[in-house]
């Protein structure tokens, strides 16, 4: 069921992008008319690529989610999502925000700020938990 939901999500994303006109290309058979046609090659290649990525990264993220609850790699697993969000928003702010309207840049900035806050809170919780555990062990 998990694999199917990953593939369905990728399909939904790219079909939505196609409906919004992201896969249009000039129709070179009629260059003077300025006609556009659907870029099936681009659409199908992106769809296939991201389906493969989803099927490869889905189990890894699931394992990271399990490790975030238990295990020796708890903190790094918990920090995975905030780190990805910080990297993604930083990249988008430097590459795309100036070409979008003001609300887009503000949204990416707020999202990055919240991810940084979550990152710091998770580190703080881990530090306090470790300190409490060591204090309790020292008293016994």
UniProtKB/TrEMBL annotation:
Claim: Transmembrane is one of the keywords in the record: yes
Keywords: Membrane, Transmembrane, Transmembrane helix
Membrane spanning stretches: 44-63, 75-93, 113-131
Record's protein name: Integral membrane protein
């Amino acid at each position: 069921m998990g694999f199917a939901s990953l593939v369905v999500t990728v399909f939904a994303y790219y079909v939505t992008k196609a409906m919004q006109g992201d896969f249009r290309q000039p129709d070179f058979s009629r260059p003077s008319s300025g006609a556009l046609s659907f870029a099936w090659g681009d659409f199908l290649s992106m769809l296939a690529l991201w389906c493969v990525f989803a099927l490869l990264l889905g189990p890894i993220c699931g394992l990271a989610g399990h490790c975030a609850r238990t295990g020796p790699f708890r903190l790094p697993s918990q920090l995975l999502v905030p780190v990805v969000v910080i990297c993604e928003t930083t990249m988008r702010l430097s590459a795309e925000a100036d070409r979008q309207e003001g609300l887009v840049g503000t949204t990416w900035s707020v999202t990055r700020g919240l991810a940084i806050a979550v990152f710091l809170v998770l580190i703080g919780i881990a530090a306090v938990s470790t300190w409490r555990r060591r204090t309790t062990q020292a008293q016994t």
